[in-house]
């Protein structure tokens, strides 16, 4: 009888020990994930998401993919800021919408400016393309290329979805943004 009680006590200790270890591992992993996927620039993201009606998880997915939250990020081709806008695109957005603000390209290092204009561009592309995946290809590879791909039967069966993306960088980009968006959704927006 004494052996049975001792065995039962050991089982209880082992059981609760395993629960404690599992909780600890989950907690460590949980913190690690939040560290890798921060909610930086919440004020700016929330304002732009509301203004342009764009999903916050998508915005964070783009920022994570484009610059990993480095406001001074600059690409090899000259894109700048958190959302990696090109000078011509930034100038077009300001001219097209006849804004009273007259920003210089260097102003894209300001998170508020870059997020506002980057999300504005996402909104424009989401109106042009019904499919988010296609819209992300336009953000990375340019709408002219996407329009060509959509009209090419080798790339698209229906003129809306891309079954093949000829630029490997753009193909990887759309997948990475979708993955980052999904993680942000699970962590913060579900």
Q: How would you describe the shape?
A: globular
Task: Outline the low-pLDDT stretches.
Answer: 14-28
- What's the story with the biggest beta sheet? none
Strand content: under 5%
Which bin fits the share of residues in helices?
A: 55-70%
Highest-level CATH class of the largest domain? Mainly Alpha
Q: Helices and strands: which structural class?
A: mainly alpha
CATH topology of the largest domain: Lysozyme
Please indicate the count of domains: 2
Structure description:
It is globular, with a radius of gyration of 23 Å. The protein is built from eight helices and no strands. The relative contact order is 0.12. It is an all-alpha fold and 190 residues long. It folds into two domains: 36 residues; 150 residues, Lysozyme. About 8% of the residues have low confidence. Helix content is 66%, strand content 0%.
What is this structure, in a nutshell?
By secondary structure, this protein is mostly helical.
List its traits.
single chain, mainly alpha, 66% helix, 190 residues, Lysozyme, 8 helices
Layout of secondary structure:
Blueprint: H1 2-36, H2 42-52, H3 56-66, H4 87-96, H5 111-128, H6 132-141, H7 143-151, H8 168-188
Helix pairs in contact: 2-5, 3-8, 5-6, 6-7, 6-8
